[in-house]
Amino acid sequence: MIYLDNAATTKPSESAFARATAFAMDKYYNPSALYAEGYALQGELKKARSALLCKIADEASFELVFTSCGTEADNHAIFSFAKRGNAVTTAGEHSAVLSAFAELKNRGIAEPRIAPLEKDGRVNVEKLLALVDEKTTFVSVMQVNNEVGAINDINKIAKLVKAKNPRVIFHSDGVQGYGKIPFRLAKEVDLYSVSAHKIGGLKGVGALIKRKSLVLPPYIIGGGQESGRRSGTENVFGIKQFEYATEEKFSTIREDFERIRAYRELLWSLLDKEIFTRLSGEDGTPYILSVSALGLRGETLLHMANDKGLIIGTGSACSSNAKRRYSKVVLACGYDEKTADGVLRLSFSHKTTEEEVKRSAEILNEVGQDLRRRMK
Ligand code: PLP
Q1: Residue 375 — very low, low, confident or very high, per pLDDT cuts 50/70/90?
Q2: Which atom of ligand 1 sits closest to the CA of residue 317?
Q3: Does position 371 have pLDDT exceeding 60, yes or no?
Q4: Mean pLDDT throughout 262-274?
Q5: Distance 97 CA to ligand 1 centre (A)
Q6: Which residues are near ligand 1 (CB < 6 Å)?
Q7: 94 C-alpha to ligand 1 centroid (Å)
Q8: CA–CA separation, 375 vs 369, rounded Å?
Q9: DSSP string, 248-317
Q10: Which of 309, 260, 317 is nearest to 289 (CA)?
Q11: Fewer CB under 10 Å: which end of the chain, C or N?
Q12: 318 a catalytic residue
């Protein structure tokens, strides 16, 4: 089986898993306990925090709160800092952000404002800035779009937003960027969400990175873990596995970036252009190639490819809601429903091989041609 749905989730790193298993079987104590074995785990969590943080941020200015997933990190940021007035985000966001913004309106907390996208899926920065005014309390712009792979220059956007209103709290959903796009956080970015399972970590572990001077209110109240900001006995196994997977992923981040970009271009060069149209821009993340098979249903192609041993995503991945037939993000890029209906998302991990890429192209061409013949 060839797996090209890595933007949805990646296979856990086996070595990180083995190391974390050995760790957790030996050090299974409660990190909040007063006895030495428990207390020592606080040091281990501190090590993990530092290992994750130092890869992208200055530890003197930023700190990290562990969460149960990227969605929780996004929700924690939004519901902590979007206040009376308005809050601005983009039409390209994951539902973890967009649904939370809708909830801001439902709860009468803030007026959500949604900035439109460019054709390649990046936010239209000029239009985003036009939505920011003196009543804006919070702005959220994702780093890498999970459907088409467009990259927003969040450091630059954060600076522009703060130049317009310095009181704004700026958040970025970095779930598809962390460990894949070489970069460092600028001081203008106040909050940044990450998720373990996109880079060889386990599902159910994430983190919210925050500027140290920003006071983050608690999201889950109880035993006071995570300095009182996120109570609940820490997922020591998941956190250590995330730490080890992160060390592994960042050790080759630049080589992976170049190699996977070459694979993305190889895959595109091998696809039948009579059938597939490319949606992902060349400047987007190397890890996602989004294409559309015009006049064909992406979902049907997904099942046909699955039968031939290839796992891929469609435009509306992450949503099992049948009503959501068309990807809102693809429509927001300006494509019509026919294009949105045929979307396939092909997403790589640093473990993807050239042979897998070549075989995937063959399978996609076969199923595309087959379905087209049947539709005639
Ligand atoms: N944000 C983006 C951009 C994502 O792609 C995802 C997952 O697909 C999430 C947030 C949610 O992350 P998690 O699955 O850890 O809740």
Answers
A1: confident
A2: 8
A3: yes
A4: 98
A5: 9
A6: 69-71, 74, 94, 96, 142, 146, 173, 175-176, 195, 206, 318
A7: 7
A8: 10
A9: HHHHTHHHHHHHHHHHHHHHHHHS-TTTEEE-S-TTS-TTEEEEEETTS-HHHHHHHHHHTTEE-EETTT
A10: 260
A11: C
A12: yes
The length of the chain is: 376
pLDDT above 60 for 43: yes
- Tell me, yes or no, if the pTM score tops 0.90: yes
CA atoms within 13 A on the CB side of 33: 11
Six-digit token pair at 10?
């990646």
Q: Which amino acid is at 91?
A: A
Mutational pocket test of ligand 1: of 144, 152, 198, 327, the residue with most ligand atoms within 8 Å of the beta carbon: 198
Take atom 12 of ligand 1 and give the residue whose Cα is closest: 70
Residue pLDDT, tens place only, 157-179: 999 999 999 999 999 999 999 99
Ligand 1, atom 7: nearest CA belongs to which residue?
Answer: 8
What average pLDDT does range 121-133 have in this prediction?
A: 98
- For ligand 1, the distance from its centroid to the CA atom of residue 194, given in whole angstroms, is 8
Which amino acid would we find at residue 23? F
